[in-house]
Amino acid sequence: MSPVPDTTIRSARLTAGLVGRPVGSSPTARAAAPLDVVRHLVAVQAQDFNQSLWAIGARSLGTTRTDVLAAFDRGELVRSWPMRGTLHTTTPDDLRVLLSLTATRTMRTVATRFRQVGLQPEDVDRARDALLAALSSGVALEREDAMRSFRDAGVDPGESREYILLLAFALEARIAWGPSRRVGQALVLLDDRAPVSSAVRELVEDAEAALVHVLLGYLRGHGPATLADFGTWIGLPLTAVRRARTTAAHQVVDADATRVAIGSAAPASSAAVAHLLPAFDEYVLGLADRSALFVDPTDRVASRNGIGAPVAVVRGRIVGTWSRPADDGTILLTPFRALGAADERALHRAADHLGSFLERPTSLRIDAGTGPPVTPAPAAPGP
User: Fold this and answer.
1) In principle, which of 65, 186, 310, 316 could form an S-S bond with 140, CB 3.0–4.6 Å?
2) What is the distance between the alpha carbons of residues 282 and 259, in angstroms, rounded to a whole number?
3) Residues 6+ apart with CB under 8 A from 2
């Protein structure tokens, strides 16, 4: 089977990932869109909360930041550590399914960290009991209040202990980040936020069915992709991934000699020419091999190896990085090399979409002095 050209793969992945999809301006469409996007992708990387909101908005043009926050406030979306010890936005149902597959592996690392920071099993138990009691009856706690509950239980949350404890209790499917606050989100009890359905309980109790469910969801929102891409994304061994591929054989097709796709996937369509995608976007992070996304390998250095910077995408290729809007709404685009006039116009339109999402005037300024790539400072991981 001949390899699929990179141009076709990029177009198909933009379409599968809903990048640039318009949803219209009706209140009903805008309200439903954030949940639709996250369900479609299964999970959206979200260690940078504000950037992750735009990851959803970039796939539901016409929605606003307020619309996405409202989906969190309604309990449709939550944010937790479902895989790789990394924060993602997902639905409560998919969070439980993902944790049923990945939490045991991640907890091994957490147990090591407990010992490194001097947390004994009895400390963990006291902290858990205190936090769950503080969150009972539908209470939502901000981070400082969660830390206070640990202190009241005699557990010092300093020296990164608070983060490790919250990660552990999230891996147990006890807590998640939920409703929005002035800064970030508040913690909630997952079962209070969204009780477990019988269908989800069946998946959680059947590891093979759960992994097939997630594989099909991944291919629906990220494919065509290799099994290694999926294994890297979910953080599971390739042997388990291959078994899931075999089980799902009638629903998965070969795109070429190395890539697979979901059989019911829509054909690639002509998406908008240009997009401003956030840091840690699924279009970039959903692949183990990102070489096809860059014109030149050196561009990966300038974009923090294609992972940590907000990126400008033209015809599926990453052509530069951009800054978050300044106080005056200016977005600075730093291209890796000179852009054509048509591409610049398309990027200005993409910036307009971002401004509409943020509900504030924005303007794009393209740095004409393109020179040797410079590595930007790392982004803060955020809660």
Assistant:
1) 186
2) 17
3) 256, 257
CA of residue 187 relative to chain centroid, distance? 18
Whether the ω angle into residue 121 lies within 30 degrees of 0, i.e. cis, is no
Is 263 a domain residue?
Answer: no
Residues 279 and 195 in one domain: no
Which residue from 189, 153, 195, 149 is spatially nearest to 172, judged by alpha carbons?
A: 189
CA distances from 62 to 22, 27, 68, 181, 222 (A): 6, 10, 11, 23, 22
What CA dihedral angle connects 190, 194, 195 and 197, to 10 degrees?
-120
Q: Give 369's pLDDT tier (boundaries 50, 70, 90).
A: low
**Do both 186 and 80 map to the same domain?**
yes
> How far apart (Å, rounded) are the C-alpha atoms in residues 15 and 260?
15
Could you tell me if 293 and 192 lie in one domain? no
State both tokens at 100. 């049923």
State the Cα–Cα distance between residues 339 and 166, nearest whole angstrom: 45
Query: Within this chain, do residues 307 and 179 fall inside the same structural domain, yes or no?
Result: no
345 in a domain, yes or no? yes
The angle subtended at Cα 108 by Cα 147 and Cα 216, nearest 5°, is 100
Tell me the CA distances in angstroms from 126 to 156, 164, 341, one per residue in order.
Answer: 11, 14, 62
Nearest one of 50, 49, 52, 56 to 18, comparing CA atoms: 56
Strands 317-322 and 311-314: antiparallel
Place of tokens 């869109």: 33
Average predicted confidence (pLDDT) for the chain: 91
Q: Domain total for the chain?
A: 2
Q: What is the pLDDT of residues 185-237, one digit of tens each?
A: 999 999 999 999 999 999 999 999 999 999 999 999 999 999 999 999 999 99
Q: Which domain holds residue 306?
A: 274-366
Give the CA radius of gyration of the chain.
21
Beta bridge partners of 61: 22, 63
Alpha carbon distance 232, 177 (integer Å): 24
* pLDDT band for position 303 (cuts 50, 70, 90): low
pTM of the model: 0.92
The single residue listed with the structure tokens 């048509």 is 342
Q: CA 334, CA 371: separation in Å to the nearest integer?
A: 10
Please, what's the largest Cα pairwise distance for the chain?
A: 64
Residue 186 has what DSSP assignment?
Answer: E
